[in-house]
Amino acid sequence: MAAVVVDAGPLVALFDQSDRHHRWAEERVEEMRFPLLVCEPVLTEAMYLLAGFWSAQEELMSLIEDEVIAIGFQIDEHFSAVRQLLQKYREVPMSLADACVVRMAEIHDGSAVFTLDSDFTVYRKNVRMPIDLIYPPFS
């Protein structure tokens, strides 16, 4: 599998066994090539959502330290493009983390986005191209 850009939802599901997508996320990660790519807004969101789970936050930081997850994006290098995405999808609305993930999908050619967020079925990369998604089946 090509590079995988990870959104916050699957990161949280991996560490929260009560999450309905926990098992699905674990199974998908086993199929992926490392490192998985994230951006700092996604990490911020995941850490916030895992605030009640100190051990999960620690495990997430260890994955970065062990280079299983890598920061694959510097927002200052793509600020204009991120801003354009936020403007384009303001009615959805699009979060900063989502805009960065879409931009990462644009700059990491052939990548797929690992997400639980259905908004990624609406978002487009490079203006009109659907984003390749690793997304749970509709239930």
Please explain how this structure is put together.
It is a single chain. The chain is of the alpha/beta class. The protein has six helices and seven strands. The strands form three sheets. It has a three-stranded parallel beta sheet with strand order 1-4-7. A two-stranded parallel ribbon has the order 2-3. A hairpin with a 3-residue loop joins strand 5 and strand 6. The radius of gyration is 14 Å and the shape is globular. The two termini are 25 Å apart.
CATH homologous superfamily assignment: 5'-nuclease
Annotated CATH architecture: 3-Layer(aba) Sandwich
Distance between the termini: 25 Å
| Rg, alpha carbons | 14 Å
- Structure summary, number of beta strands: 7
Ranges with pLDDT <50 over ≥5 residues? none
**Percent of residues in beta strands?**
5-15%
Kindly report the CATH topology.
Rossmann fold
In DSSP terms, counting alpha (H) and pi (I) runs of 4 or more, how many helices? 6
User: What is the typical, i.e. mean, pLDDT?
Assistant: 95
Shape: globular
Task: State the major sheet.
Answer: 3 strands, parallel
Biggest sheet, strands in spatial order?
A: 1-4-7
- Category from helices, strands and their pairing: alpha/beta
How many structural domains?
A: 1
List the helices and strands and how they pair.
Layout: E1 4-6, H1 8-15, H2 22-30, E2 36-38, H3 40-49, H4 54-65, E3 69-71, H5 79-88, H6 96-107, E4 112-114, E5 124-125, E6 129-130, E7 133-134
Parallel strand pairs: 1-4, 2-3, 4-7
Antiparallel strand pairs: 5-6
Helix pairs in contact: 1-2, 1-3, 3-6, 5-6
